[in-house]
Amino acid sequence: MESERQIALKVAEGALLKLGQWLKEAGKKFFKWALSLLGIDAEGFMATLQKAGEAIGLIFKDPGKFFSNLVAAVKGSIDDFKANFKEYLTGSLFDWLTGALGAVVTLPQKWDLKGTVSIVLQLYSFTPF
């Protein structure tokens, strides 16, 4: 038969568990209320937070796999950048030129002598061909 002390401990343990659950739910409701005051979708935020927690849990379960995937992703990104460097450079150069020159210059359809001369003429405020 259980002693009075053991019964009291079980009752206290049950009460503490219920209090903990109540505080957890109250904290969630307060957090959702605060998010809604800030104009943030509370349900979407909580779903994202749960997914992040699950992802972190997976990382802690198998950190080797996580770091292996991370290294592979970084290596793949670097290889992709090296393979497409020329396209990135020319695209960035044209973006810079058209952004810096604004509506002053219209890039030619074809990059030949006529197209190049049309850009030079536009820079000197002459009408293109």
Write structural notes for this entry.
This protein has helices spanning 4-37, 42-61, 63-83, 85-101, 113-123. It has 129 residues and is mainly alpha-helical. The mean pLDDT is 87.
Fraction of residues in H or I helices = over 70%
The assigned structural class equals mainly alpha
Largest sheet: none
Mean pLDDT: 87
**Terminal CA distance:** 104 Å
Order of helices and strands: HHHHH
Tally the helices: 5
Shape: elongated
Which regions have little confidence, pLDDT < 50, spanning 5+ residues?
none
Beta-strand level of the residues, as a percent range?
A: under 5%
How many strand elements? 0
- Rounded Rg: 32 Å
Describe the protein's topology.
Blueprint (H helix, E strand, L loop, with lengths): L3 H34 L4 H20 L1 H21 L1 H17 L11 H11 L6
Helix pairs in contact: 1-2, 2-3
